[in-house]
Amino acid sequence: MSASAFTPLVQRLVDGHAAHPITPETLDNFLSLPGEAVLLFSGDPVRFPEGQDVAVVLPELRRLHEGTVHIGVVPQACEDAIAAKFNVQRWPSLVWLRDGRYVTTIAGMLDWTDYVERVQQALATAPTRTPGIGIPVVVAGAAAPSCH
Asked: What does the pLDDT profile of the chain (148 residues) look like in tens digits?
């Protein structure tokens, strides 16, 4: 991965906080790590400057957990491909995982108290199916969906 793949604040996560650079080729290895993990989709720093703020608070969010939380950072060039696997539709986003399975997505830059609450919820939530992934269930003969 080139040194310019990340902005300086995201690169700081790699250099100083043992974050894993995640590409489509390395994603499966990251997902095989045991325990809690979080993927950072910071987005284009010009369009989504708050993504840099999330990169700064992410090590503090990790400290909310008593054990290890693996951090993965996705370079902008790989974000669309990897975001599609987790149905990420907003930048910046943190995708929380446990034992390689999806738990939740925390989107946007939040106030600290909101982040604390969302991380505590993530830690208390069982892994689930990634939203938007899978085959919709249709019951034969069922009434068509309606907004009314």
From this structure: 555 689 999 999 999 999 999 999 999 999 999 999 999 999 999 999 999 999 999 999 999 887 889 999 999 999 999 999 999 999 999 999 999 999 999 999 999 999 999 999 999 999 999 887 655 555 566 554 444 3
Best CA proximity match to 60, nearest among 75, 44, 76, 38: 38
Residue 70 forms beta bridges with which residues?
37
Among 19, 51, 43, smallest CA distance to 33 is for 19
> Taking the model in full, what pTM does it have?
0.86
Amino acid present at 130: T
* Phi, psi (rounded to 5 degrees) for 52: -70, -35
Work out the number of other CB atoms within 10 angstroms of the CB of residue 30: 20
74-to-49, 111, 123 alpha-carbon distances in Å: 16, 23, 22
Cα-based torsion angle of the residue sequence 129, 42, 78, 101 in order, rounded to the nearest 10 degrees: -20
The count of other CB atoms within 10 Å of the CB of residue 83 is 20
Termini Cα distance of the chain? 51
Residues 76 and 10: beta-carbon distance below 8 Å: no
